[in-house]
Amino acid sequence: MSGLDFMQAMLRGELSSPPIAALLNYRVTRVTPGEVAFRGAPEFAHVNPMGGLHGGWYGTVLDSCMACAVMTTVPKGSAYTTLEYKVNITRPIPEGTEVEAVGRVSHAGRSTGVATGEIHGVADGKLYATGSTTCIIMKLA
Length: 141
Hints:
- By secondary structure, the protein is of the alpha+beta class.
- The chain has a single domain (3-139), classed as Hotdog Thioesterase (Thiol Ester Dehydrase, Chain A, Roll), CATH 3.10.129.
- The chain contains 3 helices and 6 strands, in the order H-H-E-E-H-E-E-E-E.
- A 6-stranded antiparallel β-sheet has the order 1-2-4-5-6-3.
- A hairpin with a 5-residue loop joins strand 5 and strand 6.
- It is globular and about 45 Å long.
């Protein structure tokens, strides 16, 4: 199936979400061509030794929404993976705060996909982090 079909099947619950989503408490909530959204809330298990949210939580959620947005552009018989990504944390997300992370494709070619992402608070609308990614798109043998 195409990447879009795969992501839509995951959204409908016909395919399971990746285990990391349960571990980090986020889930896919919207899938359209070139855009994917996840919602979640960091928990105590995700904080660093100083009591703040670990930067890896921001990075993983942003990598997921941005790369999955690229996935929606991948044709049947192809696969993708993240080549690099960057995260800018603008403010700390308080434990238990529900956020939405949205990834949007900027470019989808034969061999690369580029996307950006943002994490906003669901209740407060605040911008908590931004990101960008480049993914490689490969034909399966």
